[in-house]
Amino acid sequence: MHGYIVPLKWACLAFFALTAAVGTGSAAPPPKFDEQQQIAVLQTGEPQEKALACKRLAVSGTYKAVPALARLLADEQLSSWARIALEAIPDSAADEALRSAAGTLKGRLLVGVINSIGVRRDVNSVELLVGRLGDSDAEVAAASAVALGRIAAPAAIKALESSLAQSPPAVRPSVAQGCILAAERLLAAGNVEEAARLYQAVLRTEVPKPYQLAAMRGAVVSQKAGATPAILGYLRSDDKDVFAVGLWLAREIQGPELTAALIAELKNVPPAKQAAVVSALADRNDPMALPALLDAAKAGPAPVRIAAIQALGKVGGAAAVPVLLTAAIDQDQAVADKAIDALTDAKGDGISEALVQQLGNAEGKLRNVLIQLAGARYITAAKPLLLKAADDANGDTRAAAVIALGATIDQAELPWLIARVTKPPRPEDAQPAQTALRMAAVRMPDREACAQMVRSAAQGGSVEQRIAALEVLAAVGGQVALESVAAAAKDLQPEIQDAGSRLLGEWMSVDAAPILLDLAKTAGDNKYKIRALRGYIRIARQLDLPGPQRLAMCREALAAAQRPDEKRLVLDVLRRQAGKASLDLAAGLLSDPALKKDAAQAVLAIAEKIVDSQKQLVIDATQRVIDAGVDADLASKAKALQAQARGGR
After folding, report:
1. Closest Cα partner for 89 from 109, 112, 71, 116?
2. Which residues contact 525 (CB under 8 A, 6 or more apart)?
3. For the chain, percent helix, then strand, then coil, each to nearest 5?
4. What is the pLDDT of residues 114-153, one digit of tens each?
5. What is the pTM assigned to this prediction?
6. pLDDT of residue 29
7. Cα angle at 83 between 81 and 89, to 5 degrees?
8. Domain limits of the chain?
9. In Å, how far are 31, 110, 163, 172 from 137, measured between CA atoms?
10. Measured over all CA atoms, what is the biggest interatomic distance in the chain, rounded to whole angstroms?
11. CA 114, CA 111: separation in Å to the nearest integer?
């Protein structure tokens, strides 16, 4: 199948081509429905029930359902639903039903039936459809033309071809569409000459531009020789849509002749088009194009260089490394950034090895770029060179090397990085080392051992070093880290206590909940009590917990809360937990003047979720809202929920 991708404005033609293809695939078996039961619904059910039955018969219907479905083809409401089922039923009875309906229906109902005939590609309907090509209703004639194109039988093709030039302007685009659909079918069957004739017929006819463009593409694909000159002609066109056809064909048509021609054409293409041609050349994935891509990446307009650089990152391999490295230190920052991105993501044998080799001899800006790439690509072979660079006299080089080591060292080498945090050679080295240690720590296979090393190294350090270690421990997670942060939250040093309570409040595992609750009850500073309680409530709200555990945490939080703000946060959690326990907890706050409105809103939100399943509970809870003396709006909502619950009993 000569499928193709087209610019956005050709979306309709892409659809035409796709509908001409015969797709196969594997999928789970469809559900089975009782056919007789669905047929009975079609005969006696309500319209919405009949529509659902049609959908089900589209899955598992047989010839037995065809008569009942056929009777719905004249129904304005249900015709389209019936056609969905008839299109899917694998039996000639469905074709006969559609042909019969096409002889009696008019207007949009007839158009729909003709569309379904086209979907089923019913060869026996060709004579009927040919007769409709001259219909006084332009929509009927247009639908017939498209259906003939889908069927693509010899008689259908002959009728389309002969009527193309003579058809009325309102119908002609659909006839062209039918010709293109038929040509795609012919190509799929290997009948290239017939397909070419149809494409040429469209090109000779005055039809809307999208159809001309599709025919231009098809004419090139279907011709046995001369594709290269045609494609080059399209690429030289000042019409952006024709140029786009050329670009797509440059990707679609394979062979060394076209590759060589595109390389030569690069010299003639205006700069505004060169980047697009470079991208198309790269997408051919032809080794012949590599020298031209390398040259394009070295010099010239920035858009062209960037297109070539991006292409080399995909197809250049190790041979492109020197050119990309030169571009990575270019004065044009956009070019440099794209080159670094290309080297970071490049796949292929020998690329990382080539980067390490270059790193051994590089200096200045290039050295720093290579160091960055060693980290970004996780090149463990670069570690000796990175360790050397970590002691360089240049601060930027030291920082880049240490951060790269954060991405490449293993657990046995972690003590070296920990030492850079606890005892940095220079004050400015502390921050890069902390960043690197966080990167490294979260990669380690044994996080408990990693956390133990970090904790041990930080003991006795300065306040700043201990806080840095706590940040790393929080990133690592686990039991050792949690114990360390929990201890810090009760430290005598105010700065350590502040860092510990902050990190504990951000903890993302439920095992921090008891520690947070204890801190919320016992912390000496009210600031830390509030922070801990909010962290505890956040765990109840955000983490995936069993319902009883979440409710238990809400009870504990309400008991510990001293301010309305934290109680409102608990109410927000309760709103998401439907049931008697959550209703009782929320309703228990109705007596608090500061929380009455929030509590009432929570009760009503919970009640809405269970009004159909726990009616008496909803009636009792909403009465408590009304009795609490809430505002008129809330009282009205409560009464409405009561009425709903009582009406459903």
Report:
1. 116
2. 497
3. 75, 0, 25
4. 999 999 999 999 999 999 999 999 999 999 999 999 999 9
5. 0.71
6. 58
7. 115
8. 1-31, 578-649
9. 40, 10, 16, 13
10. 95
11. 5
